[in-house]
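Weekly structure sync - notes
Attendees: PM, LS, DV (DV joined late)
Agenda: review two folding runs queued last week.

Item 1: First target. Sequence and C-alpha cells pasted below for the record.
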Amino acid sequence: MKIKDLTNYLESIAPTAHQESYDNAGLIVGDPNTPLKGVVICLDATEEVIEEAMKKKCNLVIAHHPIVFKGLKKLNGKNYVERVIIKAIKNDVAIYAIHTNLDNAYHQGVNAKIAEKIGLINTRILVPKKNLKKLSLVTPIVASDTLRGALLKAGVESEQSSYASVGVAHQNGASKAAVKIEVLFQADRERAVLKAIHNHHPLASPTYNIQSVENNNLRVGSGMIGELEVPIHEKPFLKQLKREMEINCIRHTKLSGRKISTVAVCGGSGSFLLPHAKAQGADIFITADYKYHEFFDADNQIVIADIGHYESEQFTIDLLFEIITNKFSNFAARCTKVNTNPIKYL
C-alpha cells in the first residue's frame, strides 16, 4: 500500500477542492508513491511529532493544520516551520494536511465530531457552500468508469451526488452503447473538470454541457447547527460542555437565564459565522479565537462560548483515527501523544 492510497481515500471524504482559498491542504512533504509503513495523526506537525513518527517507525504524519500556509523562499531552519520541513525530508517522513476541507464536510467532518460529542440531533450545515455547477456529458460505456474517476479527482461532488444512465449514442450514422454522466461541482473547480474531460474522454472533441445551479450544497459548508434532545439552562449546559469537550476554561458572554435548545458550532476560528447562528435561532454559538470587541456582537441575543482553538479541534485526531482504521488494517495508525497546543493556562 502506498501513501497515495490512504490520502486518496481521505480526499474521497474531504476533497481538497472543498478547502478555503487561503488553505494548503494535501500532501505537503513526501512522495505519494512511497510504500506506507505507519501513520501518526495530530493537529499540528511539530518537530516533536516528526520525532515521534520516527521513533514509531511511521513514515506519514497526518495533521489537521498545514505546516506550510505561505510559500517558503529559503530552508535554513530559522523558524519552526523550516525546521519541521527539514527534519521531515531528512528522515523520509511525509506530511499530509486535511484542514478546511475536513472542516467543511458534513459527514465525518470536524463539526460533526463536535456535535456528536455534545449530543446534538437534527444537525445541518450552518452555511452551505453555493456556486454549484452541473456537468452533463455522454461517453462510450467502456470509458465511463475511468472518466468518472477522473472527474471525482478533479473535485466534483461524491459518488452519491453523481448520476449515470446507460443508453445509445448516435454519431456519424453509427450507434454505440454509451453512458450519460451528470455531476455537480463547485464553480472554482471548472478548469480542473474540463482538464479531466480533455485528458480522459476518448473523443478528441466531446460534447458536454455546464450550467449554473442555484441550490445550496447541503453536504459542504461552514459550521454546524442542531438541537439538544432535552433543552437545558445555560449554566448547566456550559458545565456539561466543559465535561464533554474535556476543557478547563470557557470564555463566554453574559447569560440570560434562558434554556439552551438550538446550538451552533464551529471548530477553530468561527466568529464570521455569528450572524448566521443568530439568523437560524441558535441559543449558543460554540467556537474559538474570539477577540474582546467581538464578544459585544452577541448583543444579548445569543450566548458566545469560546472554548479555545486546540480544545475545539482536539477530537479531530480521534475522528481521523476512526476514519482510517475503519477502512485500513494493513499498517499502524497512531494518535499522537504530543500535546501541540501552544497556549498554556496557569
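Item 2: Second target, run right after the first with the same settings.
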Amino acid sequence: MEREKTRSCQSCGMPLARDEDAGTEADGSRSAIYCTYCYRDGGFTEPGLTREEAVGKYAPMMAENLGMPPAKAEEMVRQYLSTLPRWRE
C-alpha cells in the first residue's frame, strides 16, 4: 500500500505511516482508512465503543504522553474525534 502522504486512522487519529499500521478488511487486504488497533477482519475491534468512551480511553494516554492536565486532554480529544468519520454521527 503506497501512500503519497501519511494518512491517519479515521477512528483514533493514529498515523498510517507503514503498511503494518493499517487494519485489515474481511478479505485480508489493508484498510485505507483505519488502523490495526481499531479495525481488523473488516470490522471495528470495539464495535460498541461510543465517542464518549473513546474520549475516556484516549484522553488519559494523551495527557500522560504530552504532560497535560486530564481535562485539557479530554477537551482536545473530544474536539478531534468529532472531525473523524467514525464519530461524526
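Discussion on item 2: The chain has two domains: 7-44, 51-87.
Action: LS to circulate a short write-up before next sync.
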